[in-house]
Structure formats: structure tokens, C-alpha cells
Amino acid sequence: MRLGRNELVSVALAVLAVASVLGVLATRHAPTTAERDERVKNLFPVWHEDEVSRIELDAGTATLVLEKGDAGWTVRAPEPEPADAAAVQKLVGAIGFVTPARKLEASEENGHGLAKPRATLRVRMGETTLTLALGDAAPTPAGGAYVALDGAGARRAAVVPREAAALFTARADDFRERALVTLGARELEELTIARATDTIKLVRGPALAFRIDGAERASRDATEPLFTALGRLSATRFLPVATAVAARGPLPPLVVTLVPRARKTPGSSDRPAEKTVLELGGACPEAPAEVIVVVREPRARAGCVPKELLGQLSAPREALRDAAPFSARKDEVEALTLERGGKRLVLERSGTSFVLREPTQAPVEIEAGNLRIEAVARAPAELVATPNAKELGLDAPSGKVTLRVIGDDDKALEEKLELGKTAADGTLYARRLEDGAVLAFSRESARAFNVDSTLLRSLKVFDFALSSLVELALSAPEPELVRRAGAGFELVTPRGFEADGELTTNAILALGSLRALRWVADEDDHTFGLTPPTLTARARADGDGGSEEHSLVVGRAVPGGYFASVEGSSGVFLLERGVVERLSTLLIDRSALMVDPATLARLTLRSKGREVTFERRGGELRAEHVDPTAASTALAALGSLRAEAALHSGLARPAEGLAAPVLEVRAEPSPGLGKPRAFRLGVSDEFRGETVRTARADGVDATFVVGDAKLRPLFDLF
């Protein structure tokens, strides 16, 4: 059959297309012109990192082989084991970007030790093998060497810098997987720690926590440092197993066994658990401050780790016992159900907020919901050693608490607590259904298990602006009354003092933006210390509808804050400790001790029977026989000296030590720059966690406290 012109053209084009494809396939690993131009500064004319599959380093007595497979990089020689992928990738990048210090001419390629190289580096990249030979050390640059490259259609020789020559010194240890434990808490079924004194076995429980020896629940807070320490068992250096065993002695102080959870794969049965067994103990021969670790399973190896990890794995059994009612944390809880006295409270998480389902349907602020869940889940308690279920009301529970939580496998599960009797002192007894442990809650802790309406209350208690305040009355530590006066405030009571602007502002802002940490009760049961109160704060402020009254009643202190209520309201809430401190600080002006050294003509300090006098000479305050640096520091301290607060108004008290002061200061200003000032310092004490000294200024009828650290430069003069 004869073909027409068009058919002949089509056949010719098809042949050319096939030839083109075959040509591309035949040359696909050869460097393109663009690649060669781009890598003109590099030793290797072409480099495709993703195609590198094998690296061999032959350094005479030692051979290193790295190979990439489906599971990643492996050290094939000297012994097969998984490789540290990041370390291998760093090596691959370093090889590909070796840059010559200078290239050799063809006439120079013979010699320089390249005929019998000291080491050879072979890289398989796709179907190409590149060989880099290391010759003699080069005279320059320092640490450089002669190398020869063969492969990818190129033969070239060059001098490379120290960094490139160092590639030939790589060892297998540089690429070994340093993590000695690869199982985290989520992957574990059992953890056994055998020590010289005892053996502790932690077994995964049905909920979120492990069980001690498969029985009593272990505290998640206490076990997390154990798992963290195991995760940090990363070898700083490796040792031959025989060397490690000989160096540490026959009996390691600690043996750790980790058994992973069985995992199911589609279409197969449970995979057999592969244990990890390791031994810790003995000083590392190369680093005595480190500890030897010998891994027995899944493959034998040994190395050294930081010594502090041994201590973290030695936690006593008692420290692992869990006294909390629940193991779940607030962010893991999806729902809370309280059943008590025939009433129910059901709180459910809904998106980024909460919904109260019972006893009524209502939205709940996210913060309030989280605080209530945390109060329930982390209610402080004590374990009852030998409980009698009948005596504690647990044979016929009076209530039940249930948390629905999300477990490690993202599956919903429940944790439950049965409530027993409440003792005369307010102690509530309860039993964890997970392990049968009996807990005793104090009156304060037990309040979290009441079915009440506190979740419906807003955490915002008062809301008025600083500018709207008309009058503020505070009851402690002594009665005070502040009123607005023009753009500021005046201290009406106690009389004869100016108001401290900063302290007054802080007190008004604290009250005007008052928020509850959480609401604790619907009613005052007379156990909150509200009658008589620790403090009352009453504010009158201008509002849209006229003058508004805001009255706060503060009760007794508890861990985390103070009980408080709003006068005329039945609810009780927990108030931040810092708010109470701001409202119970006297608002008396604290500048009575402040002195400006720049205005002084003379300054006299007396302490320990000695006197130091500064006099102005040549425009500067100077003291004879005083180190200039110490003098300058003391004057600077004096210039910024301000009391922390006034302790009280009125006469000094004998216990304050001001009748026989430890330091007296008298400041005499230059003519026309003010009146003389004098103050004295008394005993050391503590004020709100800070070491302070009492102080009084002449003409000011109040005792103050000053931070001891502020006074140190003045005492250092004596």
C-alpha cells in the first residue's frame, strides 16, 4: 500500500517524537547547560539532593555506608541501624555545595597524593556515581586539601577549604539515631522502673492516667516528668556495649522497660509489642559528669546521657500517688454532670463556649465554665488510708460527679466520682470509681461539688470608670475616705494627709473593674468570714441614671484569694489576692521620705554611732573619706527613695524600733530651695512578701515601710 504525502509527514513526525523521548530518557541524569552555569562555582557540576540514595566513605581502616530506602536513611556499615535523617541530610547538602578554594589546571592534576588517596567518598545520585578522592594536605588555605572528582561526565581536581576536607572525617556515630527511647506516653502500655530499692510498674489505665502496679491511679502531673526524662534520653556520645558494661560495673542502679501499646492495622491482627529495655548507671568514661546507658532491646547499643535524667527517673513511689478526684484537665473535658440531693447540674462544652443544660438551659461564659471544671477536676484532697465505706457514707452514695472527656485516641470516655457523707467540720468523702481510692475534701474544696446556680453569674462584678468616681470609703487597715477634688482626689480621712495619686488610682481601678475569680456559692452559710468582714469598700460613682453605689464585702483568706460578696447580694465569690491588697493599702502620700540631692547644701547620715556628712563644694555634694562610687550610689538611692506604703497613721508603736533608729537622715537644702527634712529608719520586717524597714519622717504623723533593697546603698556607707 502506498502512503500519501500527509501520511508520510505524520509518520516522520511520530518517529522524531519517539526519538526525542528516547533522547530525554537517555540523558535525563546528565547536567543541563543551565545547571552547569548555575553550579559553576561548585565542585560538583550537577547535584540533585532528592536523587542521592547511597553514600560510601572509605577512609582506609574505617568504612561508612549510608543508604536510603523506603523507610528513610540507614547506616549500612559498619553495622546496620537506623540513621538520623537530619544528620544525613546535612551531609548531603554539604557535599553538594563544596566550593573549591581554587581549581587545578590539567597539568597539576597528577600528583598531590590523588593517585593513592587517603580517603574516598562515593555518592550514588540516580544512575550516576560520583567519586571524590582526598589527596595531600594543601599549603593554603589552612586545613585545606587536594581533591579529585570523577563522575557526571567530568574529571576535575581542586583545592578545597578545611570545611570540605572535614567531610572525609565523618564517622558512623555522627549519623546514628541519638534518641535511645522513641516511645512517648501516648504509645506506652507499660513502663517499669527497677531500682535498687524498689520496682515501680506503671500500667495504662482505662482513662487518661497510668496505674501504679496496675492498681492505684498515678498522678499525671507526677508521671509527666518521668516521660519527659525518657524522651530526653538522647546519647551525647556512643560507646561499644562491652566497653559500657565494663565501665559501669555489674549492677546498674536502674533498669527501664517500656512496652508499647498494641496497634491494629486494617486487615491484620494486633502487631506484637516490641519492648525497649535499657540500663542506666555508672559514670561515662569519656565524660564523668554523664551517665552510661546500655540499650538491650530492641537492638543493643550504648552511650552516655546527662546525669540529671537519672534523678528524674528516681521519683519515690509516694510522689506518684494521685490525690486528685479526676485525671482529666479542663481542656480535655467535654461535659460535667453533678448529681446531688435530688438535683442535677449539667454543663457541656459547645464550640468556644459552654451551655448549661440543667437545672436550666442557658449560655455560660467560657472562663466561668473552665473555672468550674478546673475546680471540680483539681479539687485539693487527701487520700484516706484505711476507709470504712459505711462510716463515710460510701456504701449508699449521696451523689455522683461525672466528667466526659476525650482520651488519647480521640474517643469519648467517662471518669466518675461517688460522693459520700459530709462531716461536721465540712469534710466531704468521695470514692473514685476508676480505682476505688477514697478521698477527703476540705470544706473549701467540697464547694465545687454543690449543685448551684453560680455558673449563671457574670464574673464581672463592678464596672465603673475612674473619671466617674465621686467618693471611695475603705475600712482597713483603718478607715479611709477619698473624694474627688477637681482633676484629682483628696484624702478626707485620716486627716492631715495628702492622697497618694498612684495608690488611689490603683484602688479605684481595682474596684471599678472588679471581676470574680469564680463564684463559689449561691448563699452565705456563715463559713466565709463575711461577718465581720476583713474589709469593706464602698464607692459612689456617677452613672447614666445618676449616682450609683457599689459595696464590696471581703471575707477570710483562702489559698488563691479571698471570699467576697456584694452587699445586698446573696452570692459569694473568690476574689484575687492582689485586689484586696490594693484596697487595703493606706492611701497616704508616700513622698515623705523623698529628698532631691540636687537641692541640698548639706546631708547628714547617722548609724552605728558614726556620722557621714555630705557638703556641697564646687557644685557637688561631697563626703570626706567616702569612696566616690559608693557616695554617688547612695545619693542616687536617696533621690528615688519612696515608701512602699503607710502602715498606719498616728503615733509610732514601740515594736517599730523608731525610738532607737538604725539610721537617721537629715537633709538641709540650699537657701530658697525648700525646708529641711529628716527621717529615721527602724526594725526590719516583712510586708507582702518583701523585706522592709519601718520609717517615720519628722512632721508626718504616720509610720511607713520602705523596701530594704532600696536602703542598702545608704547602709553601705557605714
Descriptive account of the structure:
The chain has about 725 residues and is an alpha+beta fold. The protein folds into six domains: about 1-30; about 35-50 and about 80-175, no CATH class; about 185-265 and about 270-320, no CATH class; about 330-450, Immunoglobulin-like, CATH 2.60.40; about 465-585, Immunoglobulin-like, CATH 2.60.40; about 590-715, Sandwich (Immunoglobulin-like). It is about 20% helix and about 40% strand. The protein contains 14 helices and 43 strands. The protein has a nine-stranded antiparallel sheet with strand order 4-3-2-1-6-7-8-9-5. Strands 13-12-11-10-15-16-17-18-14 form a nine-stranded antiparallel sheet. A nine-stranded antiparallel sheet has the order 22-21-20-19-24-25-26-27-23. Helix 13 (about 630-640) runs antiparallel to helix 14 (about 710-715). The longest helix has 23 residues, at about 5-25. The radius of gyration is 39 Å and the shape is extended.
